[in-house]
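To assess whether ligand presence alters the predicted conformation, the chain was also submitted together with pyridoxal-5'-phosphate. Input:
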Amino acid sequence: MHKEVTASRRAIPSVTKVLDSLGKIDLARPLIVDRVRRELSRIRASGKIPEFRSIVDLVRISLEELRASRLQPVINGTGIVIHTNVGRAPLASAAVHALSEVGSAYSNLEYDLMTGGRGHRGAYIETALALLCGAESATVVNNCAAALVLIVQHFTRTKPEVVISRGELVQIGGEFRIGEILEATGVKLREVGATNKTALADYSRAIGPQTGIILKVHRSNFFMSGFVESPSSTAIARLARKKRVPFAEDLGSGAIVATEQFGIPEHEPTPVEALEDGADLVCFSGDKLFGGPQAGIIAGKKRFIAALKREPLFRALRCDKLILTALQSTVDFHLTDSTSEIPAIAFLRISKDELRARAAAILARLRGLPLQIAIGRGTVKVGGGTLPRSVMSSITIDIFPESCSVQDFASTLRQSVPPVIGYVANERFKLDLRTIFPQQDDAVVDAIRTACAATH
Ligand SMILES: *Cc1c(COP(=O)(O)O)cnc(C)c1O
């Protein structure tokens, strides 16, 4: 009671006084000033004015939060190769080099070097992607969700219904539900079958004069087992052709290489296979198993792709030159069988022996610190909704700190520069080496040493 009276009598310090006490903070000055003002008015509104030192501490925490939210590289020790929270696929270094060259100069984005006249954005990438997907034609938009919206809104212009299986109205990642995003375009979903079972006859009954398109969505993030049935793409394609309705397949992950080569029994359908099976159009993400930048790739029948590109919406969804450049490098690697240059794919192929050797070298460098450290096993998902039935087995560095809790240790590592992100399992802090670039091992060692010093 007495304390509160004192608190209410204290004066709010000036912005300048707080700024002077903060010391150097690695943020743009206007952002710092703005945070100080906000923090001070929040304190004023609360009616309880803490001591000056506590005010400075509060401001500092708020500024740390802001600084931590700045986009920056992190070391991904989760073992999840395609992790939306940490930016999905890291780019190949050749892609980054190309980005810097094209980004820091003018380019032939829409300029035809042969004629000296206006050129066509994406001309090269469309040719290369069509070849890679075994398609007549291909194009690119901002992401796979945008590809879906474009496709669905084009084909439902005059016939408003999208036929889709109830088993495929999935939620992908954070807040993205296929059903909701489709309905947001104003189409009518004609759901067929049951969650676990959809038969070809269900599709057949649902198709009518109002059907604009049949959509098949690859089941990302989960799998169903037991009493489950759905017709093959080939069967749906045959039916679609008979009923003269276009058929599009959303493949999600966009695996180009056979996923069995990652040592897992699950097969992720490729664009080539889906188109061979009879889909008129396929779409998939650029930054999942494809290993490139965020993009939505659409491939299939030439006249459909041409029509999609004439949609006014296509203009709103088109990719920027930086994305096209990074995607171009990635596509070239796929076309030349140089997928070992694509980090996401290379990570999935690394042998456990290689990881174990790196783990041993890291452990040797961390001897004598106040923590228990050992080589452990990791089993994690590939991520990004891909290969939901499979786990990759991997090698981890397992840490049990002696001077703080595992959670505090994890938090201290997240404050490293660059931040190191791991996970906690069996009361150990674990760093999975599969998703850590070998050239980051030094930074990992430094971060662990510094964390030990900080928590001791
Ligand atoms: C990931 C995914 C999407 C969304 O892709 P974005 O490129 O993130 O928009 C759509 N459909 C399926 C099946 C997916 O797996």
